[in-house]
Amino acid sequence: MRSAQHQTLNWHVYNNIVRLISSGHCPPGTRLDEQQIAEELGVSRTPLREAISKLVKDGLVEHRPYRGNFVRRFTSKEVFDLYEVRKGLESMAVRLAMPNLTSDSISELRTILREIGTALEASDLEAYGFADKRFHDAIAQISGNKTLISLLAHLSGQVQLIRTMANQDPSIVEITAMERPGIVDAMAAGDVDAATHLMEEHIELVQEGTASRIGSDRDQAEALVRDSIVPNAALRQADAR
């Protein structure tokens, strides 16, 4: 029982740190202050360090010897590449799951869809993101391919962060919420090609939207730097005169 509680606490701390990162509270490139985060989350340093260790393993945080742990910076290219791989794996999961579908598995997927809808209606983005993860995990499990499941699990941390970032955009949330029922309907109808194609489109939407957003944020940051440099240079020239 204690083991289950321990795992639940670690998962809670892990997700809270992901939320701190994705919300901008701990922006990319910043050092994670363990004492401050532990106080904010109301947890001891032990589960926090275990969560950070998992974040490092999952590629969300970079450990720099003698310096500490820093939030990883994702480039738009890295996001695009990650989702290109994910698109291939998720579409394969759908294709491999089709022969294994039962009325119970379809019922499970539709139950998760209702949970997604409930979270969306309540504007609970954390619950929405968690239910979305369950949706994709369920399809992977139905595929029965342990190698595929393992590969997706290895990427899950990075995907969860990108998913959380994407969910900050209401247009992406609205469209992706409309797409999932179509995927399940196509699977239930036995239309492999349609289900696979819909899953690819589903992943591509987040891929393009998030990569574009990160690129835009980077451009804005560079513009702020230029704006701060030019006036200072002008002031120096004025002083020289």
In what range is the share of β-strand residues? under 5%
Low-confidence regions: 218-241
Radius of gyration: 21 Å
CATH fold description of the largest domain: Four Helix Bundle (Hemerythrin (Met), subunit A)
The CATH architecture name of the largest domain reads Up-down Bundle
CATH class category name of the largest domain: Mainly Alpha
| Domain module tally | 2
- Main sheet characteristics: 2 strands, antiparallel
**Mean pLDDT value:** 84
Which structural class best describes the helix and strand composition?
A: mainly alpha
**Basic shape:** globular
Compressed to H and E, one letter per element, the order equals HHHEEHHHHHH
Distance from first to last alpha carbon? 75 Å
Please specify the SSE layout and strand pairing.
Blueprint: H1 2-22, H2 34-41, H3 45-57, E1 61-64, E2 68-71, H4 76-97, H5 103-121, H6 125-143, H7 146-166, H8 170-188, H9 192-240
Antiparallel strand pairs: 1-2
